[in-house]
Specification:
Helix content is 47%, strand content 10%. By secondary structure, the protein is α+β, with helices and mostly antiparallel strands. It has one domain (18-415): Cytochrome p450 (Orthogonal Bundle). It has a 6-stranded mixed β-sheet with strand order 1-2-3-9-6-4. β7 and β8 (319-321) form a beta hairpin. α6 packs parallel to α16 (367-385) and α8 (165-175) runs antiparallel to α12 (242-273). The longest helix has 32 residues, at 242-273. The chain is globular and about 65 Å long. The termini are far apart.
């Protein structure tokens, strides 16, 4: 039975977890249409830090407050990234669907201190060589054939035909893989499953396939290097092991594809459904920039991130956090915290949002800039090619993936005047 906040009834957690009394399951269709209501309900009931249960009723803390998320991400010594600190490993089955997020691997995501600075530095140096103007041109070159494939029909489902395909092709090209072909499409599918599994999906197996494909890419680039991210990481004087490079490339590609795709999709939805943008949608570059920024505040692609593990007993938001407790970063909730938007005017045009993280473990520079180039080019190119594009359904008919982690549409059907090639 649900109450008016959209929250599931409080669940009694295992007896071994008295601190989580009244915890709420982070699952179900409450996340599908209005997660903001769920976050507001959690905040009213529990404050800035809420006890929650993940898949399989595994306990964790969800940090909802902007100040609290900022504090956690700024204090790596207290809220650390190495998941081997977690005090719940004895309760987690081998097929736990969140294992790709949490299971420790030799990835930059789980490193700390000097090791993290070194690994993040390798990624930064590999990415900062990318010319943003050339990337925009490459993205336009990817967008053209994708749009051509459906432009003559006057109708399209953009999430599958365009939104997910473009950033993946851009990401794999940056890393030295061919942009087309079954290999890339398989990678797209497996990345989606590993990051945002649906009914019947096996995220652990999918993540294994992703790793294997990237491992083959590293082997290929060791033999035949090129002007790409993978080759630059292999050549870097830090001398990362092959497994470290594989894991870090998986992180780079995953971050460039799924979140960027949902950023594109959420921005197109806003442009096509919000009257504030209606007069400027047709090639409106200014409104595109405003919509991209607003989405990062209000519909950020990464809603929540399994981020930290308490290094010792501490308090946060009035809660007693035990050593080894998992802390989930509530990025979407923090971005709409009424403490920073007291009048409810979230979405102002500034970049103080937490959508790219914060602190030492935020997205490494210049990844957010590259993601912006990909997303902006994708949206602008579509609107330029199809200037009269409109939704093919009523806005309320659009549905969101029922994901705790990613905020993205299941489909974005549109119609437009057919374009004769």
């Amino acid at each position: 039975m649900n109450d008016t906040t959209g929250l599931s009834s409080p669940t009694v957690p295992p007896a071994a977890c008295p601190a989580y009394e009244g915890a709420v399951r982070l699952s179900g269709t409450e996340f599908q249409q209005s997660p903001a209501e769920l976050y507001r309900g959690l905040r009213r009931r529990h404050g800035a830090v809420a006890p929650v249960l993940l898949d399989g009723d595994v306990p964790a803390w969800l940090v909802l407050g902007y100040a609290e998320v900022s504090y956690v991400t700024a204090h790596d010594d207290l809220f650390a990234r190495d998941s081997r600190r977690w005090n719940q490993w004895d309760t987690v089955p081998a097929d736990w669907p969140l294992l790709p997020f949490v299971g420790h691997q030799p990835s930059v995501l789980f490193t700390e201190g000097a090791a993290h600075q070194m690994r993040a530095g390798v990624i930064t140096e590999a990415l900062e060589v990318i010319d943003q103007f050339e990337l925009a041109q490459r993205c336009r070159g990817i967008a053209g054939p994708l749009i051509d494939a459906f432009a003559g029909s006057g109708r399209a489902e953009l999430m599958s035909a365009y939104v997910h395909a473009l950033p993946m092709r851009a990401a794999v090209q940056m890393c030295g893989m061919p942009a087309g072909g079954a290999d890339t499409e398989d990678l797209v599918r497996d990345l989606r499953i590993s990051l945002d599994a649906g009914p019947g999906d096996d995220p652990v197996a999918a993540y294994g396939r992703v790793q294997e494909r990237i491992r083959r890419l590293v082997d290929e680039k060791r033999t035949a290097p090129g002007p790409d991210v993978t080759s630059r990481m292999l050549r870097h004087p830090a001398g990362l092991t092959e497994e470290e490079i594989v894991q870090d490339l998986v992180s780079v590609i995953a971050a460039a594809q799924q979140p960027t795709a949902n950023w594109i999709g959420n921005t197109l939805r806003l442009l096509l459904t919000d009257d504030r943008f209606a007069l400027n949608v047709s090639g409106g570059r200014l409104s595109v920039g405003q919509a991209l920024g607003e989405v990062l505040w209000l519909d950020t692609p990464t809603q929540n991130f399994i981020g930290r593990f308490a290094a010792r007993d501490t308090t946060l938001g009035g809660r007693r956090i035990r050593a080894g407790d998992m802390v989930v970063l509530g990025l979407a909730a923090a971005n709409t915290d009424p403490q920073i938007w007291p009048e409810g005017h979230a979405g102002e045009e500034n970049s103080a949002h937490l959508s790219f993280g914060n602190g030492e473990h935020r997205c490494p520079y210049p990844a957010p800039l590259l993601a912006d180039v990909i997303a902006r080019t994708a949206v602008e190119t579509l609107l330029e090619r199809l200037p009269d594009v409109v939704l093919a359904v009523e806005p309320e008919e659009l549905s969101w993936r029922p994901s705790v982690w990613m905020r993205g549409l299941t489909a974005l059907p549109v119609r437009f005047s057919p374009v004769v090639q």
